[in-house]
Amino acid sequence: MDTNAGSATSSFSASESPASPASDVPGVVFPQAMLAVYWAAVLFVWLIEIPYFFRFLFGMAAPFLFLIAFSIWWWRRRSLSVADRALGFAMVFGGAFAFAPLTHPSLGLGQNLMIGLPVVMSIWIVWTLAAGRTSVWPRAASIPVALAAWAIFLLFRVEGVDGDLRGDYHWRWTPTAEELFLAGQPAATKTAVSVTPETEKTGEQAPVIEKLNGMPGDWTEFRGPGRTGTVKGVKLVYEWQTPPKLLWKQRIGPAWSSVIIVGERLFTQEQRGEQEAVVCYEASTGKQLWVHEDTDRFWEAVSGAGPRGTPTFADGRIVTLGGRGILNSLDAVTGKLYWTHNLMKENNAQIPMWGISSSPVVVDGKVIAYGGGANQNNLLAYDAETGAPLWTAAAGSESYSSPQVAVLDGQTQVLMFSDAGVIGFDPATGKQLWQGGAVTPNPPRAMQVHPLDNLRILAGTLQGIGVGMIELTHNTEGWKSAEVWTSTEIKPEFGELVVHEGHAYGFDGAIFSCIDLATGKRKWKSGRYGRGQVILVADSARLVVLGEFGDAVMLAANPEKREELGKFKAIEGKCWNHPVIAHGRIYFRNAEEIACYELAK
Q1: Global pTM?
Q2: What are the DSSP calls for 169-186, one per residue?
Q3: How many domains does the chain have?
Q4: What confidence category does residue 542 fall into, taking pLDDT thresholds of 50, 70 and 90?
Q5: Do 336 and 446 have their domain in common?
Q6: Contact, 237 vs 600, CB < 8 A?
Q7: What angle do CA 238, 244, 245 make, to 5 degrees?
Q8: Residue 550: inside a domain, yes or no?
């Protein structure tokens, strides 16, 4: 080990002589500089506001660069024998692989390399520098030091990360939210299909519904009618200085799905152990009515377990798309399975890094779903009644967005936002009508597009990070698109935007913001609510924000300033799911619990 000038300590071998003062300088200064630079960079990136995707890239690249610098320093330790250098490197770097099978599945090799390795390298550097200043022969002591450093990570598990990529760490032996939920479930609810007849408020049994029909005020698909996140025909008559009345709250299986409301029924998707579930609850009480389960489970370290898509209701049926590509058509009353497809297997496509996050759409008797993949069959249409395949179309290989229906210049279209840009399709044939925006493989595209009244379309990340406006023209020769403006003054990631009276409101990273749709210029940026979600109550010019950590916030849709009208704690845990308002109630859910509040009439 390198020593300070004037010291006479031994290193990894008793036969080695102390390093000279001249050779000691790089051996001490370089590792100290490594530690300072790496941890200063980590602290800097932790504190500043940068896009999620760039933070993710930093989390991947920084440990790798630290390892390169560490390796250069360690293998240039000429005062150590080659055997000692090999032993030290094996204990530090090899420990990531040796301990991976022993760590909790939520950590594993990936977390060991990204998080554990920088910590262990730092401990090792501090230890070797300190040992070089003593007369202790450190080889024998170094082995337990390395083992103890890696053993720290055997004590923990991680339940994903928040929007700033900060891990949610827990003691390994404590139960997860999913385990607590499953432990509280009666055995009868874990069967493939469990049906409870409809009952009246009096408790008397009513006739079983043959077909569930929609009604005004329903919320029947992801982000509501048109997938714009807008509630119409509702007025909020007071602010949340006093929280709304809680009707019910309960644990739920993990998923990043939102909910839909059809009459007095609530539908959502969950993970229940090894079963991916579509669940129907009574909207007013939270009582489970039925559950359909498929033996399938998606999990990844950033977001955890569960499906990501939201059910769609149409013509008495519920259509769902799971985290690994299972597309189901179910009876809305009983949960009976009408037909199913596995998009990944049938399309020979790979499951994307963060799972299939798209929600299917139903239009003109067709179920249209995005499957992704490198081939040209990314967007798929099926007969809604029989499930028979109808057409496929090239819609980009990667997207965390969902297809949506829009009527543009009198023509019904299906719009899809992906790494291929924004594309409009004819729902009858799958023919591409137009394409706008740039082909951009990174960062991942997640938000929905917003068709406006003047054949303009607001979309995210047209040229990278930010938003852009596309203008369409339509004549006898067909459709053409042109980019009006792009802006980095609001940078939505997986949070959505809402549009009201010429302005867009939503999250710029973790801070709420407003931009002018005429120019893309920012009007204001204020309010640190984390990376949450927002819906618009148009008739009241109110914004309902679900913050990343469970705070429900009411804002005025005011383009001049952020005007907070009330705030209360709605649910516990990380919240990336979209809130929903229907029939005088507001629903919040996340990967741990779901809650229903009554809005004042």
Answers
A1: 0.88
A2: EEETTSPPHHHHHHHTS-
A3: 2
A4: very high
A5: yes
A6: yes
A7: 140
A8: yes
